[in-house]
Amino acid sequence: MSYCVNCGVELSPGEKMCPLCDVEVINPKQPWEENSDRPYPHRMEIITKHMNKKIFALFSSVILMIILTVPALTNIFINGEISWSLYSSGAAFVLFVWIVFPFYLRRIRIILFFVLDCIAVLLYLLLIEYMSGGNWFLTLGMPISVAASGFAILMAIIFSKKNNIGLSLKFAIISFAIGIFVVMIEFFINLKKSEPLWPTWSLCVLISFILIGIAFVVIEHKNNLKEEIRKRMYM
Predict the structure, then answer these.
(1) CB-CB neighbours of 96 under 10 Å
(2) Is residue 44 within 8 Å of residue 55, measured between CB atoms?
(3) Start-end of H helices in 159-200
(4) Residue 118, burial from CB neighbour count under 10 angstroms (0-12, 13-18, 19+)
(5) CA distances (Å), 227 to each of 136, 168, 214, 223, in order?
(6) pLDDT, tens digit, 9 for 90 and up, residues 141-187
(7) Which residues pair with 11 in a beta bridge?
């Protein structure tokens, strides 16, 4: 029994070339036999790697419709009205926009995708505020959601294939953005609580991520250091 020295596939004595990678077969201890049984089928099966998007979208839509319908019917049967079931309906709507809706489109821009996701989340938060009788959407929910969407769009732009920025520099920008995002969260929380707007605990996070970002910038401009890190991480 022989195996290819390049790809490791099992070979029959009648093989002069590996049927998988076309590497020459040399085994002095096992002479070549013209008519020998192969340990693999003659016909190669082709596995389809592409998933049917329409079938997935339809199947997911049916599941979300069940999530919409069952709680609503239960709510009507028990309480005689639609009240708490709106929470599950809103969650199903957000999942539809996030996961299912892109599969109905042939092509969608990543920025438009995040904008639609942000709108879906904002509508769901507005529904929660209305159902709970709160007063936090404009001062807390909406600003943080918009900031999170902006952060996601920034990541998508930085890591896009068209962007030729070095990997270390990309991580540096993301580190700076995370620090600023945390400061913004504390700012909106303090604004909601009518407390001093100057950040306190978020400054520790900001300083930490600034130092991490500076480290990535240094790595980006030190070719010897980058090469050593690649070797250490087997990249």
Answers:
(1) 19
(2) no
(3) 167-193
(4) buried
(5) 49, 12, 18, 6
(6) 999 999 999 998 888 888 887 777 887 888 899 999 999 999 999 99
(7) 2
